[in-house]
C-alpha cells in the first residue's frame, strides 16, 4: 500500500480536534524512551524533556506526541520504560488527567494500537515518592492520526508519525522489529547503521520526506510528522510539510508550538551563563508563522 493510499485512509478516519487562536499545543515525537541502558537514546535528554513539559504545563499547552514515544522495538516491557523514566510519565499523567495529552503511535511503538496493550501496560504505574500504584493513562487510546481544525476557517493540520506507506516500517514492521532486536542493535555497536531507519539513512530520509511532502501539496493540507528526526518548518508558500524533529538529537530536543494562530519551531538545550552555571534554555529556530498564511500562498512542490 502506497504512502498516498495509507495517508488517505488515516486522514478519513482521524479524530478531529477543533481549536481557536487562544488554543495552545506543543507537538513532539521520537522520544524513543528506553530502559536506561546503553541503548536508551532518550536518557541523556530526559532532563530537557522534563524542563520542557514543566514549561508547557504551567502555560496551559496541550501536549501531542506524534509517535515513537517509547522504544518498543529494542525493548519488550513497557512497564520497565515507565519505571525508568517515571519523572517524565508523572508529567505526562498530569497532562492526560486534565485532558491535555493525545498520543499517536509510530512504527517503533505500533503495539500501542492494541487496546489490550494500553490497558495492561499504561493504566497504572508505581510512584516511588508515594510508595504506591498511581493512575497513569486510564482508558487512553493511542491513535494513528489526528486532525487539528481551526474553528473559524476550517483550516486543518493533519498529524501522523510519518511511517505510513514505508514498506519496511509499515506493512513489514514486525519483520523490521525482529531485525532491529536481533541483528541491527548488535551491529550498531560496531558502527554499522541500520539501513531500515529513515532517521539514520540519509537517502531514505529524503525519499520519505519527498513522499510525505507530495501528499500534503496534492491535498492542500498541512501535514505534520516526525519519523525522520529532521525538524522542518517551512515559510508560508514554501511547502505544506512540517516535521517536529525528535527528542534524541545530540544535546537538544525539538518541538513545534502552536499558539495565537501561529506555529513555531523551537529547541530545548543546555546553556551556560557568564558564571559557568548551566541552565535549560528554549530557543526559537524558525517562526512564528501565521497558520492562515499557508493557505493564502500556493506552495511549489520541489522536484
Coarse morphology: globular
| Helix and strand element order | HEEHEHHEHEEEEHHEEEEE
Low-confidence stretches: none
Give the N-to-C terminal Cα separation.
23 Å
Radius of gyration: 19 Å
Helix content: 25-40%
Report the mean per-residue pLDDT as an integer.
Answer: 89
**Largest beta sheet, briefly?**
6 strands, mixed
Number of strands: 13
Number of helical runs?
7
Q: What portion of residues belong to β-strands?
A: 25-35%
Secondary structural class: alpha/beta
Question: Reading side by side through the largest sheet, how are the strands ordered?
Answer: 4-3-2-11-12-13
Give a written overview of the molecule.
The protein has 303 residues and is α/β, with parallel strands linked by helices. The protein is 28% helix and 25% strand. The protein contains 7 helices and 13 strands. The chain has helices at residues 3-13, 46-58, 78-84, 86-97, 115-122, 173-187, 202-219, and strands at 15-19, 24-28, 62-66, 101-104, 124-127, 132-135, 145-150, 156-160, 222-225, 241-243, 252-259, 262-272, 278-290. It has a 6-stranded mixed sheet with strand order 4-3-2-11-12-13. A 5-stranded mixed sheet has the order 1-7-8-9-10. A two-stranded antiparallel ribbon has the order 5-6. A hairpin with a 2-residue loop joins strand 11 (252-259) and strand 12 (262-272). The two termini are 23 Å apart.
